[in-house]
Amino acid sequence: MANENAELEALIRNAGGGDTDAEDEEGGGLDITTLLLVARRSLIWIALLIALGLTASWLFLRYTKPVYKSTSLLKIDEKTEAGALGLSGALGQGLKEQQSISQLSGEVELIKSNIIYRRLKYSLELDVNYYVEGNVLESELYGTSPFEVQYQIKDPVLYNTKFNLVFMGSQQIRLSYLYQGQEKTGEFTLGQQITLPGMQLRITATPRLNAETRDLKYHFLVNDDAGLNAYLSNNLSVEIVNADANTIQIAFTDFNPAKAQDIVNKIDTVYLQEKLAKKQQATAQTLQFLEKTLSENRTQLQNAEENLQSFVRINKTYDVRSDVTAIITKLATQEEERQKLADKARLLSEVTRLVEQERLIASDEATLEESIPGLAILEDAPLTQQLGELNNLQRNLRRVLRSYTPATEAVQAQQSAVAFLKNSVRRQLQQNRQLLQKQLAQMNQQQAAFNSELQTLPQKETELARLKRPFGLYEKTYLMLMDKIVEFNMAKAGTTADFQILSPASRPGAPISPVRLMIYSIGLATGIVLGLLLIAVRFLMHNTVTNVRELERSTAASVLGVIPTYDKEKMTVSKLVVDKSPKSAISESIRSIRTNLDFISSAKKKRLISVTSTISGEGKTFVTVNLGGIIALSGQRVVILDLDMRKPKVNLAFGTENIKGISTILIEKHTVLECVQHTSIPTLDFISAGPTPPNPSELILNPKFDEMLNELYEHYDVILIDTPPVGLVTDGILIMRKADIPVYIVRANYSKKTFLKNINKLMRANNFTRLCAILNDANASGVYGYGYGYGYGYGYGYGQGYYEETKPTGSALSRLRKRFT
User: Fold this and answer.
1) Are 107 and 247 in contact (CB under 8 A)?
2) How many CA atoms lie within 13 A of 256 on its CB side?
3) Of 171, 479, 484, 600, which is least surrounded by CB within 10 A?
4) Is it the case that residue 103 has pLDDT exceeding 50?
5) Angstrom distance (rounded) from CA 244 to CA 709
6) CA–CA separation, 339 vs 374, rounded Å?
7) What is the dihedral of CA 660, 663, 668, 669, to 10 degrees?
8) Which H/E stretch holds residue 23?
9) Read out DSSP for 180-213?
10) Which residues are in coiled coils (predicted)?
11) φ, ψ for residue 317 (rounded to 5)?
């Protein structure tokens, strides 16, 4: 068949005298009829593809674990009871400070830090995962495991190792796992101390252990810190929902909805604890500084009190002469200023020490003035600003070190900025100390002058005044420090976490993925799309004639009629069937063709009809034999000539031998009457092809062929010639030129659409104006609607309703298949 198609296409390219392809194409545009036919033939495949898509969706849902998501909403809203008491100053300003977007980002990083992860591990016992094996998927037994594992692992390789556990009895278990590429198995008792290579285990029962749970298979894994941190990081998401409202959303995804809910709620709890601990740490550092300063001042105050008491006890006097009041007042004022300078000098020394020891870092919640309350005494705005900048740089450096290593460029840049600013602060502090030293020296000179004036006064009064001055100053400082300590203790007692839980985590009811409706929709859409693609591909690859409309659109030849599929029996060779089933649909369709032939050649009593096709197998012999039989049944004398001398088949149709025939007549070995063979129909005879000659074309061109036809005209009304396929040899064209009505056979679902171009080329090249076509072996779709019409006569639809049909044969499946095809 492949060779015949190749030969056919070569002949089609050469036929028609070199006409262009554009001239051959008839009736362009989309063939809706063919498209609908292909679509109907593909309905079963479309249904199968849709079923396949839905089945794939079901399998995906069946073998995919559902993922659940639990969320909570937090609002950063710092509140303190100390603020409600009306405390002002730097503390109140720090408690009322609004959170910015950078601060919210810092809170996000805190929630996702290892600090929170470490607390989660021990508070929720996430270090061991328990699983039960199902028919398809495994399920995690979070909080519902019938056993509990206590472990001590020495070999880190055993972390994240799958330990299989099967209950062998009420208290017996079998444990198996892979260690160093080998499977280790052992049977143990619940509660027993199990010593394994690289680890120790103790497996105990929980209240959920019963007869039903003992029949299941379990396994567990011990997570290391890296694996647990990766699990939390991959499933935890913290997002800033509204920066203006300072709201943060915490979400966690997991295959177990209860586990996701517990983790989110526990994150809220440990975040609260961490924030409280962080704020209390800042307050504790400030209190520690105040208490240290208070302790030093208390010692100095006690010394001053003891000196004053000793003076009064020895001298038994506490009165001051009025004439020294002015000098004493000046000395007191001077001493107060001197004390301020001394305090400044001490504070500068303390700040210098803090700067050198890198302990100047204040907490994230407190300002530098809160950490060093006496900093305002310096009354040096540039220095205070530089210290504040240094404090911020050191704080940022600490934050950066949480996320980066010291070798990173960001850390080194921060360290360089801190070092540069620290040198600037050192110089500023050194200049301030030198200035204070000069001022103190001047104050000392002034004090010496006042003391020289007092030398003329009684020594007792002078000593009394000297003792009272430090006592008053130390007492004032002591009271001021006590007030500060009380304020900070109140702040510490009243401080709460700086966030509210607006929406606590709830247990998710439906998984976020996979979404069943979406998956089934995707499967359905995929099946439909694949079905449409199948239709498109089959339509584009559809290159055979399927119905009479295609035949009408693509060829200029008149269509005589349509012969339906003959499915009463499986014929190996063409046969005469119209005499056996005269009332069948196929007989009626051929009668319609006979009527149409009468319309075309009604003026002639003697007719020569040639029947040809493009290639072998299109049914020209079957049509010739049965058309001849129908014409003969109408009372006309018909003779069938088998001119396909290369592959004779007419004799096979009538069940006779091919010993003599056309070839022997043309070589004058036999006469026409000697070669005529009779059939079961009295008015129907045939002459077989005879032995295959070496030169069939030359025999047809022989004048003897015309003499044979003239002799046959004397005895018969209609001469039917079964010619060779014109797509393979040229004999058929020679005969078609002699015929009154050349008939071209096209077989449905067999003949290529390109064959119709050959018909048009033959008509143009040979001026076959009366060439007619017949669609053979057409199913219901190929003949549907074919009825009355000019040049067509009574159609197939008329006869099908009036005459007997062959009963459907085959199984129900085959009949259903025919219904769709």
Assistant:
1) no
2) 16
3) 479
4) yes
5) 106
6) 14
7) -30
8) helix 21-24
9) TTEEEEEEEETT-EEEETTEEEEEEE-TT--HHH
10) 383-453
11) -155, 150
Say which residues have a Cβ less than 8 Å from residue 802's Cβ, sequence separation at least 6.
Answer: 588
Strands (E), 41-101: 68-76
Q: Is the CB of residue 742 less than 8 Å from the CB of residue 759?
A: no
Q: How many CA atoms lie within 13 A of 719 on its CB side?
A: 26
pLDDT tens for each residue of 637-692: 999 999 888 889 898 989 898 899 998 998 889 999 999 999 989 999 999 999 98
Band (pLDDT 50/70/90 cuts) for residue 789 is very low
Please count the other Cβ atoms lying within 10 Å of the Cβ belonging to residue 170: 10
Closest by CA position to 747, among listed 562, 610, 488: 562
**Beta-carbon contacts of residue 290 (< 8 Å; ≥ 6 apart):** 373, 481, 484, 485, 488
What count of Cα atoms within 13 Å lies in the side-chain half-sphere of residue 488? 25
For 6-16+555-820, CATH gives 3.40.50.300
Helix axis angle for 2-14 and 753-766, nearest 10°, is 40
From the number of C-beta atoms within 10 Å of its C-beta (0-12, 13-18, 19+), residue 698 rates as exposed
Residue 19 has pLDDT above 50, yes or no: no
Place of tokens 């030093």: 296
**Where would I find the beta strands (DSSP E) of 614-700?**
638-642, 677-678, 684-687
What pLDDT score was predicted for residue 176?
92
What are the φ/ψ torsions at residue 329 (nearest 5 degrees)?
A: -60, -45
Which amino acid does the sequence have at 678?
Answer: H
CA dihedral 268, 273, 278, 283 (to 10 degrees): 130
CA 72 from centroid of its chain's CA atoms: 26
The helix/strand/coil state of 106 is helix
Q: Is the peptide bond before 514 cis (omega within 30 degrees of 0)?
A: yes
Q: Three-class SS of residue 236? A: strand
Amino acid at 36: L
CA dihedral 671, 672, 674, 680 (to 10 degrees): 170
Tokens encoding 763: 């008509």
Query: E strand or H helix at 619, and its extent?
Result: none
User: Cα–Cα distances in Å, from 315 out to 88, 304, 305, 318, 402?
Assistant: 47, 17, 15, 8, 65
Give the other-Cβ count within 10 Å of 821's Cβ. 15
Q: Where are the domains of the chain?
A: 6-16+555-820, 27-64+514-541, 68-276, 278-498
**Residue 763 scores a pLDDT above 90:** no
Classify the phi-psi angles of 610: left when phi > 0, otherwise alpha if psi is within -120 to 50, otherwise beta: beta
- Please state, rounded to an integer, the average pLDDT across all residues of the chain: 79
Higher-confidence residue of 551 and 204: namely 204
Q: Per DSSP, which regions of 618-700 are E strands?
A: 638-642, 677-678, 684-687
Pairing of the two strands 638-642 and 718-722: parallel
Which residue, 585, 519, 504, 551, is CA-closest to 61?
A: 519
The strand pairing partners of 300, in sequence order, are none
- Whole-structure pTM value: 0.55
In 542-619, alpha helices (H): 548-554, 585-600
Q: What angle do CA 713, 714, 715 make, to 5 degrees?
A: 90
The predicted-structure confidence for 240-256, as pLDDT tens digits, reads as follows: 888 888 888 999 999 88
Sign of CA dihedral 322, 323, 325, 331: negative
Per-residue DSSP letters for 486-518?
A: HHHHHHHHHB--SEEEEE-----SS-SBS-HHH
3-state secondary structure of 687: strand
Take residue 736 and report the two structure tokens written for it: 């078609």
Query: Residues 290, 481: contact at Cβ < 8 Å?
Result: yes
Q: Residue type at 35?
A: L
Question: Tell me, what's the pLDDT at 346?
Answer: 79
Instruction: Enter the tokens of residue 260.
Output: 């996701």
**Nearest partner of 659 among 675, 647, 682, judged by Cα:** 675
Say how far apart CA 7 and CA 724 lie, in whole Å.
14
Q: Which token pair is 693? A: 């000659």
End-to-end CA distance of the chain: 23
